[in-house]
Amino acid sequence: MTQATLSQTSNSGKAVIQTKSFTPSDIDRIFQAQKKKALELRLSNFKTRILKLKKLKNAVLKYQKEIQTALHSDFRKSAGEVDITEILPTIAEINDAIRHVKHWMRPKNVMTPPTLLGATSRIVYEPKGVCLIIAPWNYPFHLAIAPLAAAIAAGNTIMLKPSEFTPHTADVIKAMLSEIFAEDEIAVFEGDVSVATALLEVPFDHIFFTGSTPVGKIVMAAAAKHLTSVTLELGGKSPSIVAEDADLKVAAERIMWGKFLNAGQTCVAPDYLLIPESKVEEFVKYAKETTESFFKSKPENFTSSPDFCRIVNAKNFGRVSSYIDDAVKKGAKIAYGGEVRSSDNFISPTILTNVSLDARIMEDEIFGPLLPIITYKTLDEAIHIINERPKPLALYIFTKKRSTSKYVLKRTSSGGAVINDVILHLVNSNLPFGGVNHSGHGSYHGLFGFKTFSHERSVLQTPKASIAKLMYPPYSGFVRLMVKLTTKFFV
Asked: What is the C-alpha end-to-end distance of the chain, expressed in Å?
């Protein structure tokens, strides 16, 4: 028997002990049961899948209060922010699947070349089978249930590993899903890294991981042992560029919202700001005003704001707060905020100016409420700074000129991009959400999530009298002539 004991720190500073026990044979038993169930589910029609999705939706709504309470216990997230960032997008993702899964499941007829005259071609979407979903701690409910909904829509069985850093939310997820699904269809595995490690030994049909790039590499290496397909939703340093002509008040309002949402613990949060030197003072002025209007207080009193949550645990608190110290030692100035309190992992909304590109805050993904400001003289200089770093998950451009946004987009690469706003590309389920290289592999949301958890099977059907017979030996002069004509006119 392997026992996983989790010791967390709640927002009150008290230890939260979570103990889970499991054996590798438990994991294998459930995996084998899910393999058997997957053969049944691959035959399910759209009505059956819609029924399951509706059960999931109703369960989310039923457990809304418990979800709010759990997230407040895990890192003092307010009920309003839980509704906006966890409940609403989850329900939207489920509803999108309910509305469209019938269409998504239909085989797609595709063109057949003249060289296969008389044949028909189609793409059939098949469930991948038994899937593992490893969820992160920053949006621990939404980022567990949204990919789960896509996997259900595609007809899979799922083994779900919530984050050990948000144990209260993990408990609610397990209670909710256990109430509506048998473990041979959806099973939740709570526990620490040893649980995740044991799960990664299993030959899944697909692994969907959301988390950091270093852990993503571990997941990908483990999947490679079984040649398992992987979707990696990672992170990176998502830059915001404010151009010379940008509306600074609008830019400040939108960047501050995206930066301080969830105390900066968002994979697509604006990580750092690139702005002309002449615009810094005015931008900081608007940024201060905006932040204080959001949280109804001055920086020293943000601890009392019900809408500003905490860093998830002491380890991350230490990491994020150390970025401030390191940046200041290397010449940065705290233009706003900078208050920290270890007793409840509080770091106030903070703006840093005169930041060195060699500071650690410009090397690592921040994942906290700190905004370093970097100045540039030309747009090409800003682009160079972006391109010196790994390709980010998101890129934000603030400008009134379409030509400026096009110029930046053509010369940079990112998982997604938003012009004159931040984060909102996630809201549109018709857009794929995912990274590129270090910021991720693959995508999901809407149809893209369904495809992620599906195998696109190519099916070609030929008639009794097939032109393919011309390819059979012996290769006579007539056959060679036909090949020559086909090469010239039909391919």
From this structure: 62
Q: How far apart are CA 106 and CA 125, in angstroms?
A: 8
Asked if residues 83 and 97 have their Cβ atoms less than 8 Å apart, the reply is no
Q: What is the pLDDT of residues 403-425, one digit of tens each?
A: 999 999 999 999 999 999 999 99
The label of the residue with tokens 């999530």 reads: 449
Distance CA 97, CA 442 (A): 19
Rounded-to-integer distance, Cα 279 and Cα 337, Å:
20
Per-residue pLDDT, 300 = 63
Contact criterion met (CB below 8 Å) for 77 and 168:
no
Q: Which residues of the chain have pLDDT under 50?
A: 1-19
Q: Could you give the CA distance from residue 70 to residue 141 in angstroms, rounded to a whole number?
A: 10
Structure tokens at 390: 């790994």
How far is Cα 321 from Cα 366, in angstroms, rounded to an integer? Answer: 10
With respect to CATH, is domain 239-433 assigned 3.40.309.10?
Answer: yes
> What is the model's pLDDT at position 204?
98
Q: Which two tokens stand for residue 428?
A: 């549109």
The label of the residue with tokens 């621990």 reads 140
The predicted structure's pLDDT at residue 464: 86
So what's the pLDDT on residue 20? Answer: 57
Which residues are catalytic, by number?
233, 267
Q: Among candidates 401, 403, 433, 430, which has minimal Cα distance to 416? A: 433
pLDDT, residue 18, reads 41
Task: Note whether 344 and 13 are within 8 A (CB).
Answer: yes
In the chain, CATH 3.40.605.10 sits at: 2-234+444-455
Give pLDDT, residue 306: 87
Distance CA 5, CA 464 (A): 64
Domain 2-234+444-455 matching CATH 1.20.140.10: the answer reads no
Angle value at C-alpha 449, between 448 and 452, nearest 5 degrees: 85
3 state SS of 459: strand
On the 0-12 / 13-18 / 19+ scale of CB atoms within 10 A, 231 is: buried
pLDDT number for residue 415: 97
Q: Considering the chain, tell me which residue range(s) the CATH 3.40.309.10 domain(s) occupy.
A: 239-433
